[in-house]
Amino acid sequence: EKALNAFFTVAYHNYKFALEGIEEPQYAEYTEGNHYDWHCDSGDTPDGDRDLSASLILSAPYEYKGGSLEFRDLHTFPNPEEKRGRLIVFPSMLIHRVPEVTEGKRKSLVLWGVRSKKKFQTSK
Fold it and tell me: What is the pLDDT at residue 124?
């Protein structure tokens, strides 16, 4: 519940829109040799069109090596630092991956949000 509240808050305050809902969260576990190649999360799904993605890091950095979330074509921004409890929120159209875990186990909870069709209004 805390992660969902944070996801909705970041969407509203940082991306300037309200999420209409989310898809079923996905628990992801990567052990040595596991990876997820370059991809984007946006597009039509049975639950709607994904607008925002989020990864809640469940492992401490010392529990695994390799396997940290990376974004392609974002040369001016470093890849996010992974810490247990950190929620990394990003537009679903960004191409990203989880490279091979070389040691240990990386655990995360993945969330996908659908933007409301209502216009966002800012206070003046």
Answer: 46
